[in-house]
Amino acid sequence: MAEHSSIERQQPNTKHLWKVFWILLILTGLEFAVAFGIDADHYKWTKIGIFVIMTIIKAYYIVGIFMHLGSETKAFIWTIVLPIIFVLWLIVALLVEGDYFGVEKFF
Amino acid sequence: MAVEKTSINPPHLLWQGGTQPLKAGYGKLMMWIFLLSDVFTFSGFLVTYGMIRFGYPNFSEVVAGMTHKTFEFSQLYWPIPEKVFKAVPLLHGVELPLVFVGIMTFILIFSSVTMVLAVEAGHRRDKADVEKWMLWTILGGFIFLSSQAWEWTHFIHGTEHGLTLADGTTIYGAKLGANEYGPPNFANLFFFITGFHGFHVFIGVLLNIMVFYNTTNGVYQKRGHYEMIEKVGLYWHFVDLVWVFVFTFFYLV
């Protein structure tokens, strides 16, 4: 809301928004291609790795462009991103540690 | 807190109303902080899901020689999601793995775009445009919720043949106690996590209707800015973001 122009009806500038829509759509399509195109018996972890990377790219576009975190101040961006980095660390740590227990021990 | 109740704030502790440190309004900032706390909640769910899922043995460890092609459901191991979710409304008996979930994902991405277009229109203070895009967003939310209702119903009812256990009993569909697709935890986590996400969508639709109502009544026009659309938009995009993760870890992996 920085520019309060007096012009009654401005022309919409939405090209970059639609571009993100197509990127998200194509990435989802690629995920489907990977899901059914790669043999899951042999390349299970390759597939999971690709899915995780694609998910993070999609998250980057949604948060950065749609929620326009990318155009906020540096301090604002780090306020949000820094805790999330620690949460990602927590998730990875717990999943790795979770390897220790089998369900039969607990359920 | 450092300042005692009786003392008057010294001038250097008072914000004089200059440039906002983060150049964002209070409400918008708090919406972000709320969403951050929601990130923690959903991260907790995903960790739970991952740990419990990895706690079960892989199907190839239980039944020697079983591959993705010869996979069959059992209570002993986690199912392959694409073998579970392969039904599409009106196409009875046709196996289309993950197609319906793909359509739901598309609907949510599309409603996210219409939401961001409403925010953009709000920046231009174009009332008619905001109304138009908010209506599309509300419609997308309703379609998504109905799709989820259909998917849950189908999941609960299950297949026609069900799963026959070693003792001769047959399980049909997914209930909290037992389900025909795998261990009870599979259905429980599915209901819990997609349910919690669906509840977020439901709240989002309510908020969207609220700001649409206010827009048509000219509340934001009188106020001089459409920041409320932006705040609700943040929430709506977050709901889309969570679905991106649920889609990956529940349906693809």
Give structural notes.
The complex is a heterodimer of chains A (107) and B (253). By secondary structure, chain A is an all-alpha fold. Chain A has two domains: 15-67; 73-99. In chain A, 69% of the residues lie in helices and 0% in strands. Chain A contains four helices and no strands. In chain A, helix 1 (15-37) packs antiparallel against helix 2. The N and C termini of chain A lie far apart (55 Å). Chain B is mostly helical and 253 residues long. Chain B has a single domain, classed as Up-down Bundle (Four Helix Bundle (Hemerythrin (Met), subunit A)), CATH 1.20.120.80. Chain B has eight helices and two strands, in the order αααααββααα. Chain B has helices spanning 26-55, 59-62, 81-84, 99-123, 127-157, 184-216, 219-223, 227-252; strands at residues 163-164, 170-171. A two-stranded antiparallel sheet of chain B has the order 1-2. In chain B, helix 1 (26-55) packs antiparallel against helix 6. The longest helix of chain B is centred in the last third of the chain and has 33 residues, at 184-216. The interface between A and B is large, with 53 and 57 residues.
